[in-house]
Design a protein that fits this description.
The structure holds two protein chains of two kinds. By secondary structure, chain A is α/β, with parallel strands linked by helices. Chain A is 36% helix and 28% strand. Chain A contains seven helices and ten strands. A six-stranded mixed β-sheet of chain A has the order 6-7-8-3-9-10, sandwiched between helices. A four-stranded antiparallel β-sheet of chain A has the order 2-1-4-5, with helices on one face. Chain B is of the alpha+beta class. In chain B, strands 9, 10, 11, 12, 13, 14, 15, 16, 17 and 18 form a ten-stranded mixed β-sheet that branches. In chain B, strands 5-4-6-3-2-7-1-8 form an eight-stranded mixed β-sheet. Classes of the chains: A alpha/beta, B alpha+beta. At the A-B interface, helix 2, strand 6 and helix 3 of A face helix 1, helix 10 and helix 11 of B.
Chain lengths: 218, 792
Amino acid sequence: MVLNLTSIKKSYQTNEGTIPVLNGISLTLLAGETLALRGESGSGKSTLLHIAGALELPDTGSVKIAGNDISKMDDTGRATVRRRDIAIIFQQFNLIPSLTVASNINFQAKLSGPVDKTKVEKIVSSLGLSDQMGKYPETLSGGQQQRVAIARALVSEPKLLLADEPTGNLDERSSLAVLEQMLKLVAETDTALMVVTHSQNVAARMDKQVQLVGGKLT
Amino acid sequence: MIASCLLALLSYWHKNPLQIFAYLSGVALATALWSGVQAINLEAKVSYKAAAETLGEGQYDIIQPKQDRTISTADYVSLRKSGWLVSPVVDGYLHNIRLVGMDPLTLPSSFLFANANITNSIGETNIFEILLTNESTVKNLIKNVKVIVDQNVAPGMAVGDISLVQRLLKKDKITYLIVDPEQPLGQKELEIVTPHLTLKNIQQMTDISKLTDSFHLNLSAFGLLSFAVGLFIVHSTIGLAFEQRRAIMRSMRSMGVSIRTLIIIVTIEMIILAIIGAIIGIVLGYLIAGFLLPDVAATLKGLYGANISGNLQLRPDWWLSGLIIALLGTALAMSSQIWQITKLPILASAKPRAWMLVSTSHFTLQMKSAILLLTLGGICTILFEGLIAGFALLGALLIAAAASLPALLAWSLGKLQKSARTPLWGWFWADTRQQLPGLSLALMALLLAVSANIGVSTMVSSFRLTFISFLDQRLAPELFLQVSNRDQSIELNTFLSERGIEVLPLMSKEAVISKQPVELFGIKVGNTYRENWRFLDAIENPWDTLQDGSATIVNEQFARRTNLWVGDQVNIASKLTLPIAAIVGDYGNPKGQVIINEELFRNLYPQSYPARFGIRTNNPVKLQSEIINQIGIDNNSIIDQKSLKAFSLEIFERTFLVTSALNILTLGVASFAILMSLLTLADRRIPQLSPVWALGLTRSQIGKLELLRAVLLALFVVVFSIPTGLVLAWVLLNVINVKAFGWQLPMFFFPLEYLKLGFYALFASFLAATWPSLKLIRTPPSDLLKVFASER
């Protein structure tokens, strides 16, 4: 099991008091499995994704990623899990503007050790980025930048890929193209994928769909 | 992992060359001024140490002849036979080089000339036939003597065996005898063996390195001020770089880089850059020191009689101090950013924000800190004595002024915004206010530089006025001369009395009074003293009491060091205690002085006679030639009032030449800080200015408004700098000067100077803003449009 969330609860303190966001969520994801997480704005989708990505800790409940209970780890331990087992794609592409496309793609993989060049070339080629490797992100279109972000995520060979509205900033045509390429690569690498999305079309392409309503999954 | 992350962070600088230039030049300029000053101080201290080692200054008692007497070889032999462990020294000048002859066989071993290492370096050469000197002096030495170069010999000096030096100086007498600290018991008293010789103990001698401490501390303080101004650039650049790289750091964190690793990477990056900046700074510091050293050497020679080497050496002590302070400065500048990293949530907004959105509460906090700091500085000065406490007050004052500047600016701009009558001006003031966080550090640096300039120029100009007035009082006689023996003294007195010429004979002796080494003067009270001397404090008719021998007059330095004031009793000698009748200001002299009438002086020192004279005459040229021709006094022993005043003023001007140079450099660094801030912010201005452009303002109008904004902000800084600078001047005159030199000076105002300085600051800001404004004017519309297309 790549991801195992059990009885996750999370709330935030605001000036108006405590606002519960997640109220006892349990969820599992197997290798190669894809999941769409849907819900209205403010329903807690991103919070759940961040907890699944070891970016945030729940108030209560257990988070196991590739067998590691991250709720018992310190910052360095969680960072190691993120580096080794997880990759995250954000709506804002989060590329490093001062690095070329090639350096951006290799960056995350290099954090864990040497990079498999053949694998990089394959991913880059399948995402249609071969001609863009020497360019800087600012010279690319939004769709191209998101494909670079996907390539960067997959080159590091994560067990779990988390995507927060990965096509939210793209037009429909680019959106579909990017999604197709991402699903194809995920299937080839047996990576578990969890996508937060508003889009019915995107959700329909996943193995499973869950809806977050009132802090619970339906 | 560290290497990959470090390269990713460093790649930011590659894309932002202007920022790396600003950062490196900030570190370099800060280090340059600091290490330059340290190089000068160190060179001086090495020279003092060399002098102490060469001459044994401040380490041994000496035996010297009483006034008008000499030491013969027979005297030396008599003393040795009577059990005195003494070593003879001959001291004199040849071609402007001080030749010191010593006897290596009887010298205490701590002397350089008696040092075994030196003797070894001489090798086969006969030690009695060589002169030891340092590299800078060797070229000026006479050619027919064997010379061995030794960097440990004090500059401007050559040491050799006494017989060789006597031969070179054509002199058979001994100048003084060094007394070994360990003397055998039962030796005969000096007064019995050689009654014409006198023992001078260490306490009566002036330690040149202690005497010059204040001067070097002052230089260090200015170096530190310049360093602080440079540090503003570093702080501002690091702040901007951190803000702009928040997104990169967020990405790294989400990709599995821990906080600890991120801090290590950022620290490594900053150390690398700080070292590069420091190396450039040390090279610049070397050049600055080389440029300033001759003036410092002249000042120290004129003010304290201290010889320092005019040649600068690359000594590890100062360049290492430059490197360390650059690293410490960078650590200080980045500490708040490191703190922010530790607090940075992984998912913090990637948009750079803090720089542009520092809230008013931040300014208020700075204002409160300023008040607290000022209070602490004040308390520190009240509770603690000494120069360090004075500098603490000075530092607190400057930092408090700088810290309160943004809040005052924000408040003023808010008021201007409210009073704006057109939407354009309303926007202009609001936009200016919005720029404050990004510009505040550079404006604070400008405030420090302008305030320091106003403060120091007020101090120097006040000092100059006081000093000129002091010279007029003290140098009232038209001629000053020095005689070489008692007969000349009597002859001159008779010569002048016969002609009815008013003469001011002066007898002096070094003494220790109230545990202070002082110069004790015996004077003949006359009209010149009564009409010209002005006292800081005095009883009624002080000259009458001095004349009848019932009181003494002391200088300010003595009064402050002993805490003895008008009316207090001074124990001048074992049976002579007198009240202080007056305290006289005495500028440019580090020593304490005590004045009594000539009768009392003669009673204390029956062998003494007036060796120095001030003469009142309407025709100094004629009188000078008569004295030379009829009494045979050497022309070099007579100086007229005009030349003496000019000489004194020249020393004064040179003393402050270094300070002025450092001030100008500090102002230059501050202007550079503004330029760098404006340039680095210029790129970020486009999204803010594009909407105004779209609403109908031309790029040229916007560019001109940007220029106007920079000049108006500088104007505000200048206006705020004037009261700050004046308070600074007050502290310098009433706290620092008193503690450093022992004198307090009246404060004068120089509005024209301030106006001129203000103009320079505005002009510097105008120049600094010109480039970014021109850049903005030339920005293609397509770049401005990108803002609306969300493509930036």
